[in-house]
Amino acid sequence: MATITKRKNQTAKDRSRTDAATALRRLVIPRPDILHTYLEYKQINQYLQYLEQRYPHFVHVHILGHTHEKREIRGLEINWMNSENVELSPQIREHLPRLFEIGPNGRFTVPVIHVGEHCRKTVFIEAGTHAREWISISTALNCIYQLTERYTRNIEVLRKLRFIIVPLVNPDGYEYSRTKNPKWRKNRRPHKSTKFVGTDCNRNYDIFWNSGPSKINRNTYKGESPFSEPETRAMRCILDRMSSNLLFFLSLHSYGQSIMYPWGYCRDNPIYWRELSSLASSGKSAIKSYNGREYRTGSISCLTKRTIAGSVVDYVYGVLKVPMALVMELPSRELGFQPPVEMISQIGHESWYGIREMCKRSFDLRHQIVREKEPPLPWPARNESSNEGVAIQSTSTPTEETNAAGGDFAKTTTKKKRSKRTFRSQHENIVRLQKSLKAREAQDLPEGIQALQPGLFPRQMEPHYPPIKRSGLSRDGQGGGDGVILTSRGKSTISSPVSLVLL
Questions:
Q1: Which residues contact 293 (CB under 8 A, 6 or more apart)?
Q2: Neighbours of 93 (CB within 10 A)
Q3: Helices (H), 27-133
Q4: Is 230 inside a domain boundary?
């Protein structure tokens, strides 16, 4: 009642001023909890808008493109050293570039292209390419959180580097994974004249794309052509534009618990693999010193034990010639693609320690890597690639199916029709082999050799050694032995008789 009376006693001018203040308060964007839950697509965009509103002098949101289901793909630029940053002195600001530029279409903004000797200082981080890898999106949001809401603790990195972070490359697949199928990996663009939906965006980039898996029903399907997907086209536009400014590219995935460098499409190592290995090792050491978690480091094809064609990391490093590019596979098999919400904050913080250290290390290595005069890219091996346009002849049956490099298999596999006769013949061979082994057990074996028990390997058997005779001269010529050569443990070595038993 008192409030109504007070409202009546206010003048029209006072009421209008109060209404304006109320409307202004309604424009304030609430902050989602990024550290303790998996956010929806709308909440992720809401967090980016919240940061842009709170830190307008060094944070800006860019719209990179739209998906098949008309969702926006957004990237956040964090650029401390710009002419609009009021926390810098006027003398420094007048020599710095603007925070952003208006795009050619006049609707969206684009990052500023830096020129000069110090143009390569941008770190690009992308996540959420695979829909089911929720933890990669939360980790990218944690990186944004560290560089914005906790910028005073990371001011050293912000003064040296500019960051462009795309926390969710595949929003359509992510929303489908959240609401319907948690194991969904691809995007959600349907393929014409088929019942199948989706393409693996990390096989759709134009670097030896033909080597990728061409079966449309596979989780790693490469698409109809390079950059056939709206998500990869949006990434291509921003990466091609920023290629001259990029210093370090990082792609976040899960759950291999490893930090990997190119190449993925072939078994060769790049020329600067030692520098890339040093960069990966710096992140590995930082995470281990933080909480003891042990990451693996190495090339993509080596650690995954297969070749992966058409990936974004190979495209950035091989085609755009960015000095440094890595893949960070977050932990771990025990936690899966979507760890419990209690682990989001821990994984995000420990990953940031490694990512920050790799950013610092990349700044130190910027003068040691010169990509302009490199030789042409190595070609995939013949048995790993169909990119050369040469049909690989085969003497196998017509039911053969070739899985080229870039998928789950790195070699050609053959599918043969199995019949009851095939199983019967295999069973007969096994029975015949068992009878021959039993017959062999009855034979007299050399001294010190025991028959191999069914189901045991030689390493599982207790060793039995012949007694050492004490007659004759020993190796030192003083007597007391028969000259038997001894191992470091004082036991005789047995070579040829064992191989006879195993045949």
A1: 257, 287, 331, 350
A2: 15
A3: 41-54, 90-93
A4: yes
Q: Is 74 left (phi over 0), alpha (psi -120 to 50) or beta?
A: beta
Cα separation, 110 vs 104, in Å, equals 9
Structural domain boundaries enclosing 357: 34-88+119-256+264-365
Radius of gyration of the chain (CA): 31
- Residue 363: count of CB within 10 angstroms of its CB: 17
> What are the strands, taking DSSP E only, across 142-203?
162-166
Amino acid present at 133: E
Per the listing, tokens 């910028």 go with 151
The number of domains in the chain is 1
Question: Is 329 among the residues known to form the active site?
Answer: yes
Instruction: Kindly report the pTM of this predicted structure.
Output: 0.72
Q: Encoding tokens for residue 224?
A: 């109809």
Residue of 329, 350, 357, 384 with catalytic role: 329
Asked whether residue 400 is assigned to any structural domain, the reply reads no
Pairing outcome for strands 162-166 and 109-110 = unpaired
pLDDT tens profile 287-341: 999 999 999 999 999 999 999 999 999 999 999 999 999 999 999 777 889 999 9
Alpha-carbon span 174 to 185, nearest angstrom: 8
Q: What is the CATH number of the domain that holds 153?
A: 3.40.630.10
CA–CA dist 104, 172 (Å, integer): 27
CA gap 280, 357 in Å, rounded: 10
